[in-house]
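Fold this sequence, please.
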Amino acid sequence: MTDKPHKPTLFAGSTFEAFQGGEDPAHISRLAHDTAAALLSRVRADPDPGVIDRLIAYTDVNGIDAIAELWSRASARSLPGALWRIYLLRALTRQDPAQSSFVFQRGAELSSTIDPVVAGASTPTGPEEITALADQILRGLFEGDFAVALDRAAAFCRLMSSGCASLADDAEALDPARASELTTRALRFQSIAAELTACATLWRRDSLD
């Protein structure tokens, strides 16, 4: 008798808002670094499209908790930390693509930077477009320029942060609790953006372990 497939784990918005990043690298299991390095080097050495498709869809089948168990406790500025953050962003986006696209579009409309171009989303950005973008960013880790994929993810986060902050301002008068939630989420996106940018810099220096 075969085991039943593991149902993917959904997480509440509060899970993302409470996300604080990794602990000090000295306290992180070597396993996280070894598995991340082995996975990335093997796939990038032979980027078979079928294998990459399965890696992208891995959390859809196994749940975000399967990735979290491996990499979520790694330092924010490490290879497993970067992989965890991008898988987390993809899971968050796919869990509510309508809301994610609404927030992203708001951030893109307000942006005075090149972040919309760097992120590479189609315009306008609806639920299908935001889902495709999250997949493209993750795919770029395995078959494209790794640092560029991190830069795209960082731009994505900055736009989401801007969108959340703007929506928080809109909600402040009528729903202070919702405004506080959106402000917290904006800060989390901004923090992850900075961490991914740092990882891209380290990768270009051949120093991202």
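Residues 176-204 form the longest helix (29 residues). The two ends are 41 Å apart (CA to CA).
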